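Dear colleague,

Following up on Tuesday's group meeting, I ran the structure prediction for the two-component complex that the binding team flagged. I've pasted the input sequences exactly as they went in, so you can double-check that nothing got truncated or mislabelled along the way. The structure tokens for the whole assembly follow below. Feel free to forward this to whoever is handling the docking comparison.

Inputs:
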Amino acid sequence: MKWLDKFSENSARSVARQSSRRSFIARVGTLMVGAAAVPLLPVARASESTRPAAPTETGDPKSCDYWRYCAIDGFLCDCCGGSYNTCPPGTVVSPITWIGTCTNPVDGKDYIVSYNDCCGKSSCGRCLCTRNERDRPVYQPFLSNDINWCAGSSVDIAYNCSAAVVLGLATEESG
Amino acid sequence: MLRKLILLILVLSLPAAAAAEVVSESRPESVVLPAEANPHWVWVSDIVFHHMADGKAYLVDGDSGKFLGMLSTGMGFIAPALPSDYSEIYSPEIYFSRGIRGERTDVITFYDTRELKPTGEVVIPPRRFAAMPTLNYSSITDDNRFLVVYNFTPAQSVSVVDLKERRLVGETETAGCALVLPSGDRRFNMLCGDGALLTVTLDDQGEVVGKHRGEPFFDPAKDWVTEKAVRWGDTWIFVSFNGNVYPVDVSGEIPIAGKTWSMFSDAERDESWRPGGIQHLAVHQSSGRLYALVHQGEVFTHKDPGMDVWVYDLEKQQQLQKIKLNDIATSIQVSKDDAPLMFSIFIGNPTLDVYDAISGKHLRSVGEIGFTPTLLQTP
């Protein structure tokens, strides 16, 4: 159950982060006048809904096959001193992310996963993993795993690894 | 014993005697490349994914396979910008004052094409897009006067640099739109999230004097195109993840979408053929041949490597040829001359393969080209 404790801690922290992320997204949404707002909706919906209980999950978070990594592209933080949803020591999480929708094989449900880059050090270099399920081109940035999301962090673009944080259950429209 | 000793002395004295007869070489001088670029040269860009502070670009002669030289190009490197006259090389580069920490400085570095030395730089806003490389993240206007650089923080904008006067003209917001797709001496297009093109017009000083957002030319919810569009004359060729080709005429301020056509027959679709890779399209301008890297895979394998390049006639919108590669590839390029070469490389195995672009015959492989090579460009 250790992962559950970590998930809870992370959720508490993410609540604090959520406000800035949401206001940021609102700002970008305002900028994207006339642009497809579809990519933004899953984020908004997940943050506004009641956070569901943490999913029951199995698998090896050091393996690229781990269910949360369905749209990840980079080095797995679990192999780099962090975990699947925490950053390695001394790195800084990027508050803005790209979003994937992954199916948890345990309950068969789709979850919205935020891929947070951990930043401020050079590439970790371990467990390189590229999966592109539902990945979109960079002109739909919030669904694109090609982007170095450290660009939005306080330490800029030095990319170390990527973590995968469950934001909530995906609704039918958001998949 | 004496005889052995004399023999030993003779043997020991031989190298000295030989050395005395050789004219000693002067200190090494740096090679200067020819003034005229060989059209069969290829620039290979490398993001060096495991050491991203140290981006590189390598110049290789496709005819001989000789490694000619390289550039050191900073952090999160995408690609150098090559003007059509190959008079200079312009490289968008990012540096931090403490390696990967400290103050960030974004520059356009100007390089001499013969000595590959920096000859100057223009500092630009420290917001250049950092991502897996695609050529369309910065581009030069058709008359080689202005370089336009896409920024993402994630607020979206472009920086315009006057290459003649070597100065930053300015930065303009391009909310909701990405990429830089040149479409004239004073005009470029950007691809927006809703599937429309934004047309941006510059004046002779490079100031933005017009922005026009068109109608969507594809459905971004159903058949979205990749960012890796290629230009054929006044037409930009976009290809969707599903292998549908969307030509768009950009000769005027308002882009005109052409007839959509399919790269694949029904039988090929049944066999799950798809486009894919980092640089999966190339055009040979004069012949109108489109080269497309393809593979068999499920949906969302749009970045997977391929072992096959299929060639199409852009005028007739017909498949012409199927080329089997020597090795899997994520990027392809074709030289611009009338006896073109095709190049291919795989990000996971830095060996450059060279082919006759007409017959498809594999000519040579050049090993040890960087670490994680991404994009190919020919002068």
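Chain A has a mean pLDDT of 77.

Cheers,
M.
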